[in-house]
Amino acid sequence: MPIKHPFSLSSLDPLVSHGKLKDALAAYGNPRMKISRMLAAGDLLPLRRGLYLRDRAVDPLALAATVYGPSYVSFETALSWHGLIPERVQEILSATPKRPVCHETEVGRYRYRHVPAQVFPIGVERVEDARLPWLIASPTKALCDCLARTTGVRSPEDVRSWLGSMRIDPLPPIDPEQLAACARLYGRPSVRSLDRFLRENPPPP
Mean pLDDT of all residues in the chain? Predict the structure, then answer.
């Protein structure tokens, strides 16, 4: 359910900055105290310094890039969202070209893992959520991001074992251009091995 607002904001954006909030509360004698009361009552949820969430119905995944960006949802979180692994990931994992960090918020834990800047824009899809659009790795990019962080994968047979350990069966349709770009730009044996494995064992279209 959306949070009720005892004040007027012209924007329907589920997020509000501290500055806009102060302007909306200008009629109150002490806007800062009013904001503190709204936070205590749960009418606002802090996401990061100077930014609040107004609508609890927003998908927590949609907030990942707002909490720390630039970033896109990836790794096991993206694999789960795409239906490729059975487990529901307990924390929201995202890729960023910046330094890795972890943020605890009232809507969940957000962990950000570093990816090379040249790899970052490949295979990023936009989810057209009615409340707040957001970015997620394609199935191909999520596989590459995961394998790039996996040690001990140096051959197509190692990839087969890894896929079995992740219980990824069947494989999703693969974008060959995204895969080739990731294999080239990541420069990791594990991602190159994924490229070889999928060329030798292409999934059904």
Answer: 89
Higher-confidence residue of 80 and 203: namely: 80
Task: Tokens for 130, please give them.
Answer: 């009615």
By three-state DSSP, how is residue 109 classified? strand
Hey, which bits of 115-187 come out as E strands? 124-127, 134-137
Give 101's DSSP letter. E
Which is it for the CA torsion 14, 20, 26, 30, positive or negative? positive
Residue 56 DSSP class: T
CB 81 within 8 A of CB 92: no
pLDDT at 5: 46
Chain-centre distance for alpha carbon 41: 28
Instruction: Report the predicted TM-score, pTM, of the whole model to 2 decimal places.
Output: 0.87
